[in-house]
Amino acid sequence: MTLTVTNLAITRGGVPVLEGINFALEPGKALILRGPNGIGKTTLLRTLAGLQPPLAGVIDGAEDTVAYAGHSDGLKPTLTVVENLRFWASVFGAADIQSALDAYGLNELADRQAGNLSAGQKRRLGLSRLLVTGRPIWMLDEPTVSLDRNAVAMFADAVRGHLGQGGSALIATHIDLGLDGEVLDVGPYKAKPKPIDDFDGGFL
Amino acid sequence: MIALLKRDLTLAFRAGGGFGLGLAFFLIVTVLVPFSVGPQSSLLSTIAPGVLWLGALLACLLSLDRLLALDWEDGSLDLLATAPLPLESVVTIKALAHWITTGLPLVLAAPVLGVLLNLPVPGFFWLVVSLALGTPALSVIGTFGAALTVGLKRGGLLLSLLVLPLYVPTLIFGAEVARRGATGMETATPLLMLAGITAATIALLPFASAAVLRVNLR
Question: Out of A13, A102, B28, B185, which could bridge B180 as a Cys pair, Cβ 3.0 to 4.6 Å?
């Protein structure tokens, strides 16, 4: 499933933040999004995941193919690790959660309540959710926040495994994950202020 | 969908999940009313259906602000919105879970608490029937209010203001069924109105809730 984005413009709170974005993400490829804080990487990922409508442009191939992981992990503190993961597995119609637990070393924590996990452990659980979605395109927003070096390596392995199976990933991150993916710096696509036209001039 | 219902019920019954909040409030209201209006049994019999219905309605209102807000805060609402479930079914399941944890206990507790208010004997049956028919509407309307105010800090006040007027028809016809039943009058007309309101809200409001939720998630 190729994700094609043509001439995309996105808004945050009604204000255009990025415009003129074009890329194609093919199966087996990763695309790393970079850019300074506040440039609109999160907004771009949310738009591509279908959580908000684009201002202009066409997104092709994102319908029901995207697994989105945002800043928060969507965990319930009073459910155990296994219960949290099993819930998402059944929402996405997957049966097997063991491989996801293995991939992020969560077996020892399986029966702990998610509320008692450390920040990094919570993140690992949040990322393991991606493995049970069965969706081909992963959209990850700062996935390595609060992960230690070991866990970052686990994450990179999981992404590599996903790419190896013909999946693709769009990752907004500031660190080098050692993935061979293209880098898209969104800085140059910052939306420019509209020039004042006659309509605006009427108010001045 | 079953998984979501199971998760919501599990969450409600776990520590801090808020199960029993509405029930405890209902209990407090009905226990305190005889103290505040005085112990004349004829007066209590007269007001019992109305007090029980009002208590149940306010008890339902109490837990509404947590209905979607918790899922919004921890990000699971975003994830549910990108999941294969349509948002319409998500809000329907949420309303169903709210009814099972709040409305259903009220229906079951109402006859017991009716004794405290000296509810006339023929009224017990009609009280339970009217609550069983009316409380689903309260949950569905409440879910709509919760969807409207999700993402607002301290949205509880706005939620109550938005939802209370929408609760009025259910309250009028529900309490009327119980009152007529208690005094041995014909109950068919208000009962049909109550059933109609519930059926209409269940049929239509999930679409409205899902639509406002999509806007609020942006």
Answer: B185
